[in-house]
Amino acid sequence: MNRRDFVRLGLAALGVGTLSVAISDCAALPVIPKRPTADSGTALGWISHAEGAYTLLLPRAEMGQNIATALKQIACEELGIEWSRLTITLQDTQRMEVVRATVGSDSVKDYAEPLAQACATLRDALASGRQSGRLRVVNRPVSELRAFREGRFVGSSPQIVHGVEIVTGEPLFAADIRLDRMIYGRVLRAPVSPEVDVRPARWDEAAARAVPGFVGLVDDAGLSLGGNRGLGVLAKTPAALDRIAAALAVGWSVGGDAMPRDIEAAIDVDTRLQRGNLDNAVVKGRVEEGAPWDVDIRIDVPFAAHGPIEPRAAVARFQNGSLELWAGSQDVFYIRDVLADEFGLSTDQVRVHACRIGGAFGGKTICTVEREAAVLARATGRPVKMQWTRAQELALGFHRPPVSHRIRARLDDGRITDWRNAFVSSHILFTSAVLPPWLQGLIGTFAGDGGVARGSLPPYRTGRTRVDYDLVRLPVHTGPWRGLGAGPNVLAIEMAMDEAARAAGADPVAFRLAHIEDERLAATLSQVADLAKWGEAAAERPGMRVGRGVACGIYKDMSYAAVVADVAVDAGGRVRVTRLWCAHDCGRVINPDQVRAQCEGNLVWGVGMILSDRLAVDDGAVGAQTFADAPIPTMAEVPEMTIALLPSTAPPTGAGETAIVAAPGAIANAVRAATGFRPTRFPLDPSLFRTT
Amino acid sequence: MDITVNGRLRSVAPEWRDEALLSVLREQFGLVGAKFGCGVGICGACTVIIDGEAVRSCIVSVRDAAGRTVLTIEGLARADALHPVQQAWLDEAVSQCGYCQTGQIMSAVALLERSGTPSDSDITAAMNGNLCRCGTYTRVRRAIHRAAGAER
User: Taking a C-beta distance cutoff of 8 angstroms, is the pair A557, A520 a contact?
Assistant: First the structure.
């Protein structure tokens, strides 16, 4: 009996393409990995069966969205097996066909059905007595899939995969890997912008060698991140790296650059608007420019770090000319392809094992610490573990770009007749971390960046509408951050809608409902209004100004959220969010408790966007060293939350970054209601809301 | 140089004696439950209990831990049952990414040892230095209340 055939059945020979851009002074750079969409034939390769035990090779990165649990529910439901009979194995580039990066809240939307189709095929084959041979999936109508209706597992919330391992401290994360003869590495870099050409010029090797635990130095062109070339250090223990770094006292040769130092000026939307329309149009309507506006607000949202508690880590081992790597990455196949390219290896000679990721939020998509670990492991011949320090995580990672918005609206008889929104930001999808300036320039002028634009199309009937934006390359690298542009863009829209409702003298919920086109958004907003008893005032608190606000939005044309927030503002202007309600529609729900968990996370991120998210940047470089300089919300800042999931039989979509479109606007609008002042710059500066 | 870890006397190898306790636990002893998050005692991911007190093992030198009694997440469960706090964490499905959770649990265990039935403000005071970027705070709070009930 050859049950392994079931493993092989799905491994169709799919070509793996990588779009390369040749750059004069650098190697071909994999830019936009071309990946097939998952189909049910590929999905057969994820599921295997032997002696009544099933294994699911998870086609997605597990980073806390608990997709392992959701896909296990799908598989167990469709296979008709007990929960304990299916084991989850994380991604492994040598054991599965290439899959796309785990981004965009697409995992349930794009992977549940192919997996269910494959499991249905396997179930029927086993039931008919087949134990070997090639299987072919014949897709059946979704209505015939057991996993797409409520069942034993689907629609319930079983104990999460890795739940016990997490609470008992079992090794799950990249930095938990320990190998024989393993040593520790770090790449020292100059504290300048990654846009600056810099290299180590001089260092005191003798002093470094005298440090106990010293193993070696690595000066290698492969240790460049953009133009920033570092110096590799290897030691027998982690703290020896700190002592060696101090002893080396590296002097840097720092080149020039032509990057803007005054970032606020570089992205000032009003300066840009004086020259006419911006380069990239989301909506190209013609608005009445001459007449006065009823709403005219400027909104500024700064840089923000992702702030995962796990600084990125990797363990690399070179053996017999092959590279084996353990990584906590949203895209292990991208890492494989980059490193194969880097070392002139075939993709078979690079094996990347996915580890559970200690938070990513869009920030762990490119190849950084993995490349450093691989270069050092090749140089030393011993396995190398690397984990970025918190300061490296802040200085060398990419961040949410700052954005400045101008929104103007005009009303007639309580309805919006004109909507003019312009904004300036930096790249999110076509990032400086992977694209050279000339190519980014072309994209900025001719193609735009859908990540920056995300969420900027108002989900309202806004009459004559123009929405456009500009992209500016900045010295601090930027990229995807939970929700991409949608968090800040919808925050801007929802504050403008709040002002428009005030201008119309209308209730903010009723005003929105009168302008909403999408029925599901209207239902979600109505649901949160019921849940929060909209119309009642926020509970009084002695000595505090209290207020209630609302906001709603659509994420990626697929998921819907609406939030009501209560805030209390003290005499010193300090804002506390005292209560949050959220209604959420992401279609059919596989695991209600985990969708709620994602909503809770998004609400906390909304609190952070308004009250704390910032990243200290000095003279064009990240100055932040610790969580104190790039704060994230703490328990004390998080209020009680009530979440309602709208019942739905629509196809399942995503929940990972939906409520972040509504939570910040609701909080900002509540501050407006409590204080009478429209907040326009974030995070909030208490001195602007002070009464004493 | 010896440390009692989870009831067992362990010897710190000579080359590890200038390290933080966190590195020795993780790298020499293989107790990887405590995590590196910030290296300066702000985030709490490295929390362990030394002589009954929750401490940040990333800023405790292993020399200072010598001769003392350290409890890590690996020492909480008995052979047949999880610790009530671990069980409460599962029952409330607290974990998202899970990276900070061992530190959260150790802070919670120390809190409950001190105060059998903590109030919400006791919980905030004890837990505010344990950061979670996934935003699991409301569940952390619920799990602590649940464990307090279970422990009574």
Answer: no
The closest of A436, A342, A346 to A27, measured between CA atoms, is: A342
For residue A62, what are the CA distances in angstroms to A66, A141, A267, A364, A662? 6, 29, 35, 12, 25
DSSP calls for A18-72: EEEEEETTEEEEEEEEE-PPP-HHHHHTTEEEETTEEEEE-SS--SSS-HHHHHH
- Residue B95 and residue A159: Cβ atoms within 8 Å? no
Distance from CA of B37 to the nearest CA of A (A): 5
Q: What is the residue whose two structure tokens read 């704390």?
A: A612
Closest CA to A350 of A330, A388, A377: A377
| Number of C-beta neighbours around residue A128 at 10 A | 7
Sign of CA dihedral A428, A433, A437, A439: negative
User: How far apart (Å, rounded) are the C-alpha atoms in residues A84 and A53?
Assistant: 9
pLDDT in tens, A122-163: 999 999 988 777 889 999 999 999 999 989 999 999 999 999
Residue A639: CB partners within 8 Å, gap ≥ 6?
A: A566, A576, A577, A578, A579, A580
Give the torsion sign (CA, A278, A282, A283, A288).
negative
User: Is the CB of B102 less than 8 angstroms away from the CB of A633?
Assistant: no
| Contact partners, residue A447, CB within 8 Å, separation at least 6 | A280, A430
Distance from CA of B12 to the nearest CA of A (A): 13
Q: What is the pLDDT of residues B73-108, one digit of tens each?
A: 999 999 889 999 999 999 999 999 999 999 999 999
Does A308 contact chain B (CB < 8 Å)? yes
Asked whether the beta carbons of A232 and A217 are under 8 A apart, the reply is yes
Question: Do residues A629 and A612 touch, judged by C-beta distance below 8 A?
Answer: no
Residues of chain B found within 8 Å of residue A636, distances taken between Cβ atoms: 124, 128
Q: Is residue A282 classed as helix, strand or coil in its secondary structure?
A: strand
Count of Cβ atoms closer than 10 Å to residue A569 Cβ: 24
* CA atoms of A570 and A576, how far apart (whole Å): 8
Question: Which residues in chain B touch residue A632, judged by CB atoms under 8 angstroms apart?
Answer: 131, 133
A176 reaches B (C-beta below 8 A): yes
Give residue-wise pLDDT tens across range A530-567.
999 999 999 999 999 999 999 999 999 999 999 999 99
